[in-house]
Amino acid sequence: MLGSNFYKFLFFITYFLKYFLGLPKLYSLKEKNMPSLTEENYLKAIYNLSLSGTKPVLTNELADALKTKAASATDMVKKLASKKFISYKKYYGVQLTAKGQAEALMVIRKHRLWETFLVQKLDFTWDEVHEVAEQLEHIHSKRLIEKIDSFLGYPKTDPHGDPIPNSKGKLPIQKTLGCDQLREGQQATIAAVKDSSSSLLKLLDKMGAYPGKKIKILSRENYDHSTEALLDGKKIFLSKEVAQNILVTE
Ligand SMILES: [Zn+2]
To answer: Is the pTM of this model over 0.90?
Structure first.
């Protein structure tokens, strides 16, 4: 049996660590401030939903976007509010606080840098990277992501043409419009792809419709709004849905 001196010693060590070095305190502080994987996905979804649609974001919309039950979304929303990542009013919806927005933009930054890294350095195709980046975006090492950013030469956009927030969380504003908004005879440059699902990206691959390419609208059908266009001197046909998902700058 261990003598009582041992317990006294143990008590002293714990006391010493806690009050003089503050180690357990630091540890718990770190744990408290760092959002979990699920929390990060919620923050990202709230950010994306508030860009595309209504502000504040409704809990039901959030549940749909994350393919979860409304009750689970409500629980998580309460948790995020208690951590001051969002403000939440019952029946009204949620909004990111400055702290929550910074956190969401950091996850988006990591996601887009990883996608760029996978395409540029590991020869992944642009339709393969989203799923992998969904996992990699949750690595917390700030040093790692800063190294990757500098290794890639501080890219401004990811392989889908989406802008990458900088290390301070600033997102460059890119004014784009859907290809379906262009008039007949109008020329524009492809900037990004709205939907980065692999089926759309594979289709765009076949046409050679990548960010940076010039596109000129030849004609549009009244019946179904499908478009005939010129891409690199080659005639292509775009359904209304595909045209909506190709974002261009004039
Ligand atoms: Zn992605």
So the answer is: no
